[in-house]
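Tutorial, part two.
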Amino acid sequence: MISNKQTKDCIIFFAPAFLQVGCDLVHSLKKQIPNFKLTAICTGGYKTVDYVLKNIDNKLLNVIYNLEQEEKKWVKDSQIDYDYIKSFENKFSIDYFGRVLTADRRVGNGYVTGGLSRPSYLADLSKKNSSTIPFAYIQGGLRLFENIFAERKYSFVFLYVVASSPALLISYFANYHKVTFRCLYHSRINDRNFLDSSPFGSLDLLKKKFLDKNLIIGEKAKKEANKFLINFRQKPVLPDYSSYFLNKRDNILKDFIFYVAYLLIYNLRILLPKVHRQKLTKDKMRHKFFYFKRNFLKLFLNENFSKEIPNLKFVYFPLHVDPEASTMVLSPYHTNQLAVIENLSKSIPSDHVLLVKEHIPMIGFRPRDFYKTIRSFPRVILVSPNFDQFSLISKASYVCSITGTAGLEGLLLRKKVLLISKDTPFSFFKTGLIVESDISKLNQSFVDLKNIEYLDDKSILKYLGIIFDDSFKMNNGLLWEKYDEQPKVEKDTFIAELTKQMNTLIHST
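Running the prediction step on this input gives:
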């Protein structure tokens, strides 16, 4: 192992959504930490790798890895060492293999039951060779990251998101080697974000503070928390990231033109120089057709939804985005939402129906017959995604969610909440909610809900106060839109905040 006490070696995960902002972060860290050195893990193929190499001084780089190329090597390995794979149960957790597999919408594609994944050769391979490819893939990932962490003593690992097998494996290795790990997570309040120590979105640092009986929250944060709660109950608003995706508009014509253009270039790639030819892949062509087809089908799906709210008591369950880390990483045993809905419909009080609402960005993304199956369940009503979520929460007897923000919104609006996942970041409240991960026991959960107290405002304000004290503002466009087009002041503020927090953590190691 390379062990230079004068060097602060760090791992940062780069992706198409974290290119320019990632490079800006590295430049900022270098100014604050002269002995900073980077190991870059890149997903997104040559585009990501080339951008990082072009925009980061080679002197800062320990090494750069192209995960797309590494993954191709992993699945070609026919020699699987099952004992080697199993040995990591003692290092990580007994269920690490299933969690890592479920976290990836490609090699774990068979677990994606409530949504359509972008086509990929890894998904095709995994479904065709389900008894070998998952083992070969994860074995390859274990060997790569085992070697990376053996080569250097790292001070810090930063992932902008944990939404794939490689990302989750990195977090496991960081924890095993006692390397400081942070991931960017939304607080689900306005535009406030955290750097959290958990890859599972459970906001462990917030929880630790909340459970501290001697915690003192700053006066400014107290006032912000109180103002937010008053305003939210008068006029509820979605968190910034939800508003961003709901307001995003698709352009079917643009999607079609991009697909046709890429199709022509791909089929004429033999005429291009090798350096450009290797960047054209069949998967990327399939992705462009996938998005065009999805957005086109959206036009014909409205007949699946009820346009009226029944004049009956109901339990409210909003569908989750799928595939997404909110279930695949945070709640890997509940990725089959049809199974959750079926068990809820069997468990709700006898004088209730289950009201299921679609997530607007998922229109066109569900498998064939998904809506038909939901509508076939007794006592289940699938309503239009255009209904106002807060109106449904207010009218519901109870709110149920796997890990979704609707659970927190229900608590803020004085509703009792049933959570399916124990890793939900607000699952530690002592009142107001029931957490039950065993969907065969949901009937008892509704009995318990009836008997528990509502969440008190003191606990809510403490929770909100910690958020306003410890989190920072972030415009979601910095990650999900063209970074160059975002206001300079927002980019500079975001990078400065990340740098400050990471600098503090790195120097504490």
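The CA atoms of residues 40 and 64 lie 5 Å apart. In part three we will examine how such features are distributed along the chain.
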